[in-house]
Amino acid sequence: MTKNSTLEHQVAKSQTLATWIASIVAGIALVVSLFSLHETHEARMAAVRDELLIRARRPMGDQQVNIKKETGTVHFGPIAVPWEVLLSNIGNSTVSITGYEVLEVTPDGQLMYSGIDRGIFSPLNNQAVALPLTLEAGKSIRLSLLLGLNPGPSAYATLTESMTGNQKTLPLIAIEKLLAKKGIDIYDNTVVPMLSNGEINGWRVEKQGKEQIFLIKIHTARGVELAEMTSWYDLHRF
Predict the structure, then answer these.
(1) Quick one: 126 and 10 in the same domain?
(2) What are the angstrom distances between the C-alpha of 22 and each of 12, 25, 28, 35?
(3) Is the dihedral of CA 76, 84, 184, 214 positive or negative?
(4) Cis status of the peptide bond prior to 193, with omega within 30 of 0
(5) Which domain holds residue 37?
(6) Going along the chain, which residue ranges are E strands?
(7) Looking at residues 181-202, what average pLDDT do you find?
(8) Considering only CA atoms, which of 89, 116, 97 is closest in space to residue 105?
(9) Residue 198 pLDDT
(10) Residue 3 included in any domain
(11) What backbone phi and psi angles, to 5 degrees, belong to 92?
(12) What confidence score (pLDDT) does residue 45 get?
């Protein structure tokens, strides 16, 4: 082998090594770039979060309540009450509400669902609301969630004793006054009526020992689940 051919061989070998090193460097750069893009995507997704504030309370006043007469001793929500729910988007992005659940939390911590959820409606026209719902950042929406209540035995007997059919609708205030005359509330807690000129204009609950506690869950398109607990005597205002 001549001196020139040896030199050419060394040059070719150096060029091959340089090409190989360049390929490795390019590969590492590509991996770093992809990792950086992934981190940027993850950071962006972390910054876009669904933040909803849920507030719920039972109705008051002349809200219409449906009473269903059932036979037997076990009832599954025979009194349908339109619970008020206010959803507020307190985040910085639009939220898509894709579903909801309503459960009852029993005193021993069990979750019950039979007969509770009767649908979700608009309080403006009482029409059923179709999901998903889109809620822009900084906006709120008021919904009516129809819940099936299990009243106390005495309250249920009082409300159904004069029924000629299987169902009737009464304003909530009329129901509460009727029960107050019997000295009870809808869950058979003891009530002291307040009279004015022989008419009941108020009542005082002696002990709120019996009531249902509901857990309302809201699901969003980004997989976020938010929850709020509410009960009959949880009377905070929106």
Answers:
(1) no
(2) 15, 5, 10, 20
(3) positive
(4) no
(5) 1-47
(6) 52-57, 64-68, 79-89, 95-105, 111-112, 117-121, 133-135, 140-149, 167-171, 191-196, 199-205, 213-220, 225-231
(7) 87
(8) 116
(9) 76
(10) yes
(11) -115, 15
(12) 45
